[in-house]
Amino acid sequence: MAAEVERTCGAAEAAGLRRYVDFVSKLYRYEMRGFIDRNLDSPFDLVGLDLARLVAAGGMRRLAPKVNSYLKDPRLQRLYSFQAMYAGVSPYQALAIYAVISYMDSVAGVYAPTGGMHALPQAMAAAAAAHGVEFRYDTTVTRVEHTGGRATAVHTAGGERIAADVVVLNPDLPVAHRDLLGATPRRVGRQRYSPSCYLLLAGSTARYDQLAHHNIHFGAAWREVFEELAGGRLMSDPSLLVSNPTRTDPGLAPDGRQIYYVLAPTPNTDAPLDWERLAPEYREHVLTTLEARGYPGFRDGIEVEHVTTPEDWQARGMERGTPFAAAHTFAQTGPFRQSTLWGENVVFTGSGTQPGVGVPMVLISGRLAAERVTGPDAGYRSRAWR
User: Is residue 335 domain-resident?
Assistant: First the structure.
């Protein structure tokens, strides 16, 4: 990685990147142990040596200035700070602790399961079934029966009452409270939410040999992008994430075909945007931008297509139409984020609860939920995140 930076940006930037890698590696060790892989019920749970180390390392500074102190090339500054957008905040507002995302992206490395992302939940379900878990698909739960903070059963749309010692809820947190538990706590109702995204999935005949599995394309505008999103406006000069899963797993598509996943950040549904009207127009905007940034013929190559807009995300049960849940502001991070436990025996999991957004974090939330049910298993945790 540093060698490539040296060829592209020079020796000074490569040296800065090495120092930055040291910084984010320390952040990962401090955060994983003390903040991410733990159920946090109080700010006092944070007090300890890792917190002191995190503060001393600069983790409580703002992300963009911290990144810029190591890297001077604007391209690298963007590359190592844009991840804050997926945590729901601008790099100029996010705490430097979110540099840990770029550690996972760039240092630890990104892994893609063979067979696509769906292979991961399939494997987990198979492991659970092998241990006696019964899955009931196509069954809608309409409410959780509870008294005095203790859940006793769930009720289904078919009229069935299923008694329960513990209820684990995976819907987006506001939806779980409102639709299943019957009331939304003030704190949850007042949460600030992340931006949303326009997502285009395409099966295509077009192939671009220069692509990696994941590709990020920044527009000339940078700070303006975050101002537009925060102001409820579409990006005039969009930054795009383009994934090409068949680059590393050709079996996901028929011979001679490719899969593309194109993500453009957008405002969430708090913005008064009529996506039914906007969607066709915005599709053309995205495709034109792609073709101008190194994807000639992308539009003509599409054979199979599926689009998801913020309104579609909302229809799927995601509050404010964002798949990125509550924003990771300081007041919605760590012990200040919704706990994994409600009442005596309702357990939350997913991106709205601790530790937060992203595939690794959501998987950890599942382990934290299991810990609420079965008790802590420190041995497992230390092996998994050593």
Answer: no
Count of structural domains within the chain: 3
> Residue 12: which domain range?
2-108
Whether residue 359 lies inside any domain: the answer is: yes
3-state helix, strand, coil in the chain (%, to 5): 45, 15, 35
CA distance 81 to 16: 15
- The radius of gyration of the chain's CA atoms, rounded to the nearest angstrom, is 22
Instruction: Return the bridge partners of 155, or none.
Output: 143, 161
Q: What is the DSSP string of 117-186?
A: TTHHHHHHHHHHHHTTPPP--S--EEEEEEETTEEEEEEETTS-EEE-S-EEE-S-HHHIIIIIIS---H
Among candidate residues 18, 26, 69, 32, the one with its CA nearest the CA of residue 356: 32
76/160 Cα distance (integer angstroms): 56
CB 345 within 8 A of CB 201: no
Is the pLDDT at 384 greater than 70? The verdict is no
Domain end marker among 56, 80, 108:
108
255 and 203, same domain (yes or no): yes
Residues 6+ apart with CB under 8 A from 15: none
CA distance 194 to 187: 16
- Classify residue 336: in a domain, yes or no: no
Residue 114 lies inside a defined structural domain of this protein? no
- The amino acid sitting at 71 is L
Rounded to whole angstroms, how far apart are CA atoms 87 and 98?
8
Picking from 108, 139, 168, the residue at the C-terminal end of a domain is 108
Q: What are the pLDDT digits (tens) for 280-326?
A: 999 999 999 999 999 999 999 999 999 999 999 999 999 999 999 99
- pTM for this one? 0.90
